[in-house]
Design brief:
By secondary structure, this protein is of the alpha+beta class. It folds into 3 domains: about 60 residues, Uridine Diphospho-n-acetylenolpyruvylglucosamine Reductase, domain 2 (2-Layer Sandwich), CATH 3.30.43.10; about 110 residues, 2-Layer Sandwich (Uridine Diphospho-n-acetylenolpyruvylglucosamine Reductase, domain 3); about 100 residues, Alpha-Beta Complex (Uridine Diphospho-n-acetylenolpyruvylglucosamine Reductase, domain 1). The chain has 8 helices and 20 strands. The protein has a 5-stranded antiparallel beta sheet, with no helix packed on it. Helix 4 crosses helix 5. It is globular and about 60 Å long. The two termini are about 25 Å apart.
């Protein structure tokens, strides 16, 4: 094991924030985890880092940062309708989506081009265009630091919610996710009603629907709206879409007749955070090198050398203005370290 000390995390987070980790260690073999747990010379405080696409660094990271580099995809089992794939947590998410498409396995094509690793998918319960990871996750396996053993959690045990799971709450910093088992469909059930997928398919002149066509449409939409983190530092959507009561929504509708919403239940609706932020005039606004993206108000970007604190301060301004104008308190989707 090659332990690095006082190493910059700039290459390991998509915001491109240049702050150091006290210690950094790459994990590419399951056998390393029991060794790390038993090594009393290593810090007890541990942080797991995958693709670094959902974190905002605001200070040097104390303790040990573990880079999840576990790789591999294998068929666990299958029946007439489904295939269960065991996917190592260090696999790049989009590469896994392409693997599924190339093997005619459906269920995650709407989640194409989401940055990050497979290990992050259950933590965040990633979602896009009407699909969430929880719909295909069968189980999650990880090394539990306190129990000193590998434990598997069924889908029900993961307690999935909107961009939420047990891994963000009770098991935060207690589990190193090693693999996720997905149940994918041999026969696709197409989901094209959300967002602009249907329009994009028409633009692409698609006459025969397929999981590849849907993925291609999603990739085209995301590429046109979202900045490439390799070129412009960002973590995708900075805020969650808030859920409000139908009564609150109808009250807002009197002043904003074009306010969009997505029904959640008979009494609750979800409102796009990007729309709220744009209405407050933030789209394209800059605070030095920290700014709101000009094409997608839900994205805060690092246009150069913005610090994590500067990005946080901008997000706080946005949060307060939306609260004052609409009476809605946005919640950050990005995890702050």
């Amino acid at each position: 094991m090659q332990l690095q000390k006082n190493i910059s995390l700039k290459p390991y987070n998509t915001f491109g924030i240049d702050l150091p980790a006290e210690y950094l260690l790459e994990v590419s073999d399951l056998a390393q985890l029991p060794e790390i747990a038993e090594d009393k010379t290593l810090p007890t405080q541990k942080h797991v880092l995958g693709g670094g696409s959902n974190i905002l660094l605001t200070k040097p990271v104390a303790g040990l940062v573990l880079l999840n580099k576990l790789n591999g995809i294998s068929v666990e089992r299958e029946d007439d309708e489904h295939v269960w794939l065991n996917v190592s947590a260090g696999e790049v998410w989009h590469e896994f989506v392409l693997y599924a498409i190339n093997n005619n396995l459906a269920g995650i094509e709407n989640l194409a081009l989401i940055p990050g690793t497979v290990g992050a998918s259950p933590i965040q319960n990633i979602g896009a265009y009407g699909v969430e990871a929880k719909e295909t996750i069968d189980s999650v396996t990880g090394w539990h630091w306190e129990e000193a053993e590998f434990i598997s959690y069924s889908n029900a045990s993961c307690d999935f919610g909107y961009r939420d799971s047990i891994f963000k709450r009770e098991l935060k910093d207690k589990l190193f996710i090693t693999s996720v088992t997905f149940r994918l469909d041999k026969k696709p059930h197409y989901n094209v009603s959300y967002g602009a997928i249907e329009q994009e398919l028409e633009k692409m002149a698609v006459t025969s629907l397929s999981i590849k066509a849907i993925a291609d449409a999603v990739i085209a939409i995301r590429s046109s709206k979202l900045p490439d983190p390799k070129k412009t530092g960002n973590a995708g959507s900075f805020f969650k879409n808030p859920t409000i009561t139908l009564e609150h929504f109808e009250m807002l509708q009197t002043n904003y007749p074009n306010i969009p919403c997505y029904p959640v239940s008979d009494i609750m609706v979800k409102v796009p955070a990007g729309w709220l932020i744009e209405q407050c005039g933030w789209k394209g606004t800059r605070r030095g090198d920290a700014g709101v993206h000009e094409k997608q108000a839900l994205v805060i970007a690092n246009y150069g050398n913005a610090s994590g604190d500067e990005i946080w301060a901008l997000s706080e301004e946005i949060l307060q203005s939306v609260k004052e104008r609409f009476g809605i308190l946005l919640e950050r989707e990005v995890q702050v370290w």
